[in-house]
Design goal:
Chains A, B: Homodimer. 2 copies of one chain form a homodimer. In chain A, 40% of the residues lie in helices and 16% in strands. By secondary structure, chain A is an alpha/beta fold. Chains A and B meet through helix 1, helix 5, strand 9, strand 10 and helix 8 of A and helix 1, helix 5, strand 9, strand 10 and helix 8 of B. Chain B binds a DNA duplex through residues 1-2, 5, 18-21, 44-46, 54-58, 60-61, 63-64, 68-76.
Amino acid sequence: MISRQRDVPGATSAGPLSRRALDRLPVYLRRLNALAAAGTEYVSSTELAAAAGASRDLVRKDLSALGQLGRPGKGYPVGVLEAAIEQILGISTHQPVILVGAGHLGTALVQYGGFAARGLDVVSVLDADPQRVGQPCGQLTIEDASRAGEVIERTGARLAILTVPGEAAQLAADDLVHHGIRGILNFAPVELEVPEEVSVRVVDVSAELQLLAFHHISGEAGSAR
Amino acid sequence: MISRQRDVPGATSAGPLSRRALDRLPVYLRRLNALAAAGTEYVSSTELAAAAGASRDLVRKDLSALGQLGRPGKGYPVGVLEAAIEQILGISTHQPVILVGAGHLGTALVQYGGFAARGLDVVSVLDADPQRVGQPCGQLTIEDASRAGEVIERTGARLAILTVPGEAAQLAADDLVHHGIRGILNFAPVELEVPEEVSVRVVDVSAELQLLAFHHISGEAGSAR
DNA sequence: TAGATTGTTAATCGATTAACAATC
DNA sequence: TAGATTGTTAATCGATTAACAATC
């Protein structure tokens, strides 16, 4: 179940990125974006550590996997580090994403806007409810979910956000995969069965809140990340 | 930064639960709920493993921390295991939760319904926009975020879901903590600074999607959980 | 009994922290 | 130079897997 370690395609050079390190890259990147906007030139591992809730040793370890980007005594050049992480995460290549399930959650995500800054374009919203088809959702118009094949072909999307009810999720996923989707961000509280070559990430909101409640009850403190 | 290991208060007996094991409990529970509803009496570690995307050895290890609940040759009694996990996660004690930020995402979560089954009641929705105050949101009526103190006192909530824009998140969190909130589920793409005794869990949707895109590009396969 | 499956210990693996020389 | 901070190796820690006797 644990991902096999594998070389990162676009990596400048240097060592392997652990699975956990990879999870932290977007967090570092968010901070770097803010620092770049503010015109800051260098950032220390200590500062990035505070932003990510990690130790500074860990930050240095993570970043050393991208190459020798830092300058002893000064820190890491913001722009260079930003570019290196963006390259690893493939942001330069703008990627089309489709969203299936135009309920409140789907609508929230379409309007969220945070995707564009990360190289991801929501190019189509689909829904199975004929009543919703044709209605606006953000800047887009809701399309018929039964036409997912056409939409995927037209947009070239390989990623999908799935915000349909739990009982509809597996069928929807099957359809998406059948038509070429290779990565699914699943908001339905259901474990999807997909072919080996398809990646799935699960966002289970109630599980998160339940664990938070547990942490709270048991007196656990601090960032429960 | 890593949570200190600590004895679980309501634990029947038995060993310590690792942080990762704790994360898996809600997943097991979801499956157990379904099995119980179907009238199944016993479930094997193999079946739970398939549902959770873990190995069956790991499932047995996790569950052994709850006590010797299984029967060799038969499996785990569904009802007993269900009750044990619910007790650990504190579901029996229904907990009030408030939600701050009644945009699309907040509305989606209020209407989501999956919380109730997990012992969590969304008892109030708040928003800072005077235009929204007084309007309905699911079964509730939106209240004024500036009155968070009164609401928290009235409802006794110690948990909050934060679905406000990123730039408003820290101020909102400060206010909530000031009025007694001790756990925050944060959807804003911002690292919150909170006192040590407050727990925060972050749900960063665009980071998840970005990582998914990365997995996809780099040809990584399978459940990227 | 034979087959299945648990609970637990030991072995492995991966990730984090500690330490420190090298460098600005 | 002195102080700060990186990059990297070794030590520690925690989590997962493997193995197997005990039990239904």
